[in-house]
Design goal:
single chain; Rossmann fold; five-stranded parallel β-sheet; globular
């Protein structure tokens, strides 16, 4: 009779997004993990990508417990932002891509999201979303090929920092996304948690 191998549950400290991605990178390294369109990410590459996106969120003022609204279709930036929120302990708030202004405004206000990542094709819907009544401080606009969407700069609530999906500085060429950087709102210092698993 073949011996049965039982998997033991991981302790809670090892069930975090950083720990799981780190474990996958250590075990599987550069083996393919994810293919999205024409790009393929390895276990190590996804770890680097998510860590870098989490750093960009921190630089934009997002901290543990904050909410980040994601109005993105099925694309790598959605997975990247979702996992980066988990990395920080922030909550990702998905918004249906079919949502219109009032629905978007309600979800932003109800969730208390401080940052909104939105596709450029949906930016015009923010015109009647009542953004001034929300907690949104930063809007990242994801466009094809990282092109800056000039309409995004006029749609944010007063004082919100608006700009393109921030560029990431990672060593893996497969994890680069061409775009321009987004500056954090004035007066917000970037805080890097002490639990970063090192430089990538």
């Amino acid at each position: 009779m073949a011996s049965e191998t039982r998997l033991q549950p991981l302790p809670p400290a090892e069930r975090t997004v950083p720990a799981m991605l780190q474990r996958g990178a250590e075990r599987h390294g550069d083996r393919p993990l994810l293919t999205f369109g024409d790009a393929t990410w390895s276990h190590r590459g996804l770890l680097r990508l998510v860590a870098a996106r989490a750093r960009a969120l921190v630089a934009a003022g997002v901290t543990r417990g904050d909410r980040v609204a994601l109005m993105l279709t099925n694309r790598i930036e959605l997975l990247e932002a979702f996992l980066a929120c988990g990395w920080l302990g922030a909550a990702a708030v998905p918004i249906n891509a079919a949502a219109m202004g009032p629905q978007i405004g309600y979800l932003l206000k109800d969730s208390g999201a401080r940052l909104l990542a939105i596709e450029g094709a949906f930016v015009e819907r923010l015109a009647n979303a009542g953004l001034g009544e929300t907690a949104v401080e930063t809007i990242w606009v994801v466009t094809e090929n990282g092109a800056r969407d000039p309409t995004a700069l006029a749609t944010g609530p007063e004082g919100a920092a608006c700009g393109a999906w921030p560029v990431l500085r990672v060593r893996s060429a497969a994890a680069r996304h061409p775009s321009r950087a987004c500056r954090p709102p004035a007066g917000r210092a970037a805080r890097i948690p002490s639990s970063w698993p090192g430089e990538f």
